[in-house]
Amino acid sequence: MSTIVDIVMSGLFQGSLYAMIAVGLALVWTTIGVFNFAHGVLMTVGAYIAWQLASSDALGLPIFIALPIALLASAAIGLLMQAAIVRPFIGRPDVVLLAVITTLAAASIFENGTLLIWGPRPMQLPPLAAGTVKIMGIGISAHQLIIILVTPVILAALWFFLTRMRLGLALRAVAQNEDACHLVGLNVAALYGLAFGLAAALAGLAGIFLGGFTFMSPTMGSEPLSKALVVVIFGGLGTIAGPIFAAYIIAFFEAISIYFIGFYWTPALLFAVLILTLMLKPEGLFSRRSRSLA
Amino acid sequence: MSTLLEIRGIETGYGRIKILHDVTLDNASGNIGLFGPNGHGKTTLLRCVSGLLRAWHGEIRFDGQVITNLPPRRIVERGLIHVSQGNRLFPDLTIRETLRLGAFPRRARAQEAQNIERVAALFPKLRERWSQRVRTLSGGERQMVSIAVALMSEPRLLILDEPTLGLAPRIKDELCDAIKLISQAGVKLVVVEQDVEFLLDLADHLYLINHGEVAAEVRPGDSMNHEAIMEMYFGRQTSALT
Ligand SMILES: Nc1ncnc2c1ncn2[C@@H]1O[C@H](COP(=O)(O)OP(=O)(O)OP(=O)(O)O)[C@@H](O)[C@H]1O
Ligand SMILES: [Mg+2]
User: Is residue A172 within 8 angstroms of chain B, CB to CB?
Assistant: First the structure.
């Protein structure tokens, strides 16, 4: 019994993290049409900014004040990043390839920047809430429980925004027909910025979730990004629901596999899933045709 | 009566290739009709008017104010709305969602509910398909949605670039009736059409665009008969009527 609760909790927790990361990737892909390899370092940067604000070794603000500030800062960094390394290439036929190069470069710069500013020593972010909660005999940290409960709310809010609100509709439209967007009076450049900024804030939030759970390091974003990569390939990048479902499926798969097969082989199994997906259903990956949100 | 749209000495093109040479349309009264052979710059001119394409030279005024090379959204805000040729719109949005986007300009938001009703009355066919995705619509239905979206933006001047391209006669008539109703409601039109009858029906002042220039015009009151226009079309006596 406790095994099942353990697996379920672990699946829900990891699934929340993966979903939060994958949705940001999907948002950028579906609006701007590029893959953002700097998404992982945006997590890292968000977590470190929150640390700077909240840690008792630094500013020592309460986490619930530090969190929104860190998210705004992440969004601003995403916005600037978009303006500097993506927007100049929009409209060029080789924009996808160029964005791979520029976002990888940005990832490297930010990772090393984090190392320079905060050093290699692992640090820990104050959790969102202290203490543990007992669920059916299993202790789970309050921090994890909050993440498990809050993530679906945030994802649902995002879904509502993209499908029910005019600005969200505009974000979906900009991917589909740029000229037609101009002709209904949309500010296309601002929408690209908004997509990137929103994705960066989601990445920052995932980073803060992770930083309050494990130790933070300058490379903390790369492993979750590679998992999110499996998620978006598995679920397809074209929709917003796809990566969300895929995130939870992959996380449960991972939790089960870790329990029964062990830590050591689980990553290999995940990549086997990735390769199988690519062999059986490759059109999900980087296919411009299926670019649409919701 | 000053004219709503004045175009003076417009030159533009793509890359280094000049398409329009000194186009001037500043004396139009009533609805404007543009016609001319394929590929001679009608669409190019309209794209320049709505800000999608930079003018290299010249001036465009809307309601007396210069709008040359403003961002398209600034032009849309003033009520100059362009229904582009063969618009695919947003394939994965539904009709309802697409119409909501049409009401994006600030000045159109307050009237959104009212305009939805207006549009549904004008195109009853669309009402049955409110939540159908645009990608699955027929050509005629898509054209109706294109016009409907433009109406949601509260146009004062509506640019229609070949609204009946590739449509069957019956749908064409329906569309023509709808456009007439729009015009009667006080919206000025700029229409590009290959079908001369259709154009004569809708427009008061016609211009022939040939080789990126205004080659001839037919003013209101000129004898606008079919043959004369066909003659202009095929370039035998292009200046006969000016
Ligand atoms: N994006 C573009 N890049 C380069 N050349 C273009 C572009 N769009 C149009 N042209 C060229 O500009 C010229 C004028 O085209 P335009 O679309 O304005 O013609 P049109 O009069 O609207 O024709 P039609 O009646 O067929 O719609 C054509 O020679 C066309 O090939
Ligand atoms: Mg044309």
Answer: yes
